[in-house]
Amino acid sequence: MEKIYRLDGLDCANCAAKIEKSIKEIQGVERAQVDFATTKLTIEAENADLSEVCNEAKQIVKKIEPDVKIKNWQDESEEENNHFKVIQIVSALIILGVLALVKPVMPLSLIAYSALYLWIGFDVLKTAVLNIFQGEIFDENFLMTVATIGALAIGEYPEAVAVMLFYQIGEFFQDYAVNRSRKSIKSLVASRPDKANLLLDGQLTEVKPEEIHVGDYIVVKPGEKVPLDGVITEGRSFVDTSALTGESVPRSIEAGEEILSGFINQEGQLTIKVTTVFGESTVSKILDLVENAASKKAPAEKFITSFARYYTPIVVGLAILLAIVPPLVTASAFYPWIYRALTFLVISCPCALVISVPLSFFGGIGGASKAGVLIKGSNYIETLAKTQTIVFDKTGTLTKGVFEVQEIETQLPQADFLQIVASLEQGSNHPIAKSILKANQKDLSSVENVVEKAGYGISGQIDKVNYFAGNDKLMAAENIVIPEVHAIGTIIYLAKSREFLGYLVIADDLKAGVSETMKELKALGIKQTVMLTGDNRKIADAIGKKIGVDHVYSELLPADKVSHLEELLQENHKVAFVGDGMNDAPVLARADLGIAMGGLGSDAAIEAADVVIMNDQPEKIVTAVKVARKTMKIVKENIIFALGVKIIVLALGAVGIVSMPVAVFADVGVTVLAVINAMRCLRVK
């Protein structure tokens, strides 16, 4: 059983990690996850009352983050109102400026600065005290409270107020940057339609898409989003598919064609017969996958979570030692060392890392989705960025998968020859079988005792006579003598009992831009490209040479593809397999990374792979690699920048070179810059 909430107002990544850890400890909880990027809380419970577990989880959230509002995931989120925060900061800046000019004497100085300190820092103090009573220490509120109260205690009144004020200013900009990033991510979800025009007895009624059933008719007017998958029964138009495919060029569509939810109708009115309910529609599945992608964390994210758990307590311990040990050892005054220790505390919160790293990964997922590349998790981004070998299936991946009968050689009338082969193939879903059925013009015969052998062909009885249709391996297995054929294409031989009747040649065209894709992958530093296919060696070698693939393995059965892939996996580098997501499920699952081509309308493709190329075009693999590498580059930049600044400022603070305001920049200032840098992941050319 699962329950999903949204935590409105969750602005502390450290607190999000604490909430997740505490909920996991509730008895009966199988899985608990708080996604800081989307404020999504997911709870799974087995052998426990889910409502009781959720009530306990809500109490935990309220303890750790009292101001957070717990909502059902489907409810609309509230816009955060920051007017009071702005008034608070501006008024404090003015009063601090006035006090600096007036320079009041004691005790007025203590009273004025203390009042101003409480005005600007009361919420931080309150949270810190509540957290201490709940056993939650070592967060940023506790650290800021100890540091600034310490500054007041040693007589640094203006500095204590200034540090708290700068901290609040930094928090304000940090929240602004995080919310901007969240809005950019959530804009993806705007492609999920919120209304539908139901056509009933000639009348249109506006309803929610969830209320529509399979078989109902809906009308999509110009400018509206298509709410559900279906088949057009009336109308003709151009549709914007960019929400799903990332393609900016509108696509022509007319009666009889399938249309998918998430498309935007640009011109004519369309009447659509619904084929899937809202929850199973293409756009819903894609958006659910994007929203849930953060559950699969990359090693870098896991490292940052573990790092933050130990880093802050260690720094607090060092600050205590810094305040006590040097003055005792050197017999010097305590004041400067206490000040240095307080400065040390200000910089110790790892917010820049805890916030920016998950946002970077989620931004990469969101940016890729806008470009028509669906990446199912942060861990797959990291794997894709490290991939050095890309293995391709041929049919439907590098080629269009649209087979046509190009040539027929037989002593029978061609129409009769085609009728026999088509009759044998009528129960097969293979693209080659479909092309033969399409070419046939005569009525199909009834076939008995049909046996289809993967990688060989098919056999069956027509009017009590045995027929065999397949490749040369099937003919050899049945001891049927066939002539040598030099045609380029897939050759299907036909035999009656042991008598050879003829053959037909079926060809499949390459997709546009395949050769350019291989060149670009090489330019990106991909070490080798490999093609695995069940097609004959002659065709495979010709195609491989034409498109520039490094290695070609042909005439393979499905099990052979897995064996070849496992050999490549033993080379100790990341291997991605690109297939159509339906016929290549075993290989997709075995590879370090499975990439499915043509996710539109293909449930199997979306389920089987780790990455889905929505528009079926190979050049999007280049886009996927670029997005992954850009995201990992930004993640590394944020880690190096945040740790580098903190280490430098910690060292300078320990020797008394930097002041508390500089330490505040090292905390919240670095966080703001890291979050802004993370937002670059959303931009994909």
TrEMBL record:
Record's subcellular location: Cell membrane
Catalytic activity: Cd(2+)(in) + ATP + H2O = Cd(2+)(out) + ADP + phosphate + H(+)
Residue ranges crossing the lipid bilayer per the database entry: 84-102, 310-335, 341-362, 639-658, 664-682
Pfam family membership, one: E1-E2_ATPase
Enzyme type, top EC level: translocase
Tree of life domain: Bacteria
UniProt family annotation: Belongs to the cation transport ATPase (P-type) (TC 3.A.3) family. Type IB subfamily.
NCBIfam families the record matches: ATPase-IB2_Cd, ATPase-IB_hvy, ATPase_P-type
Protein name: Cd(2+)-exporting ATPase
Gene that produces this protein: cadA
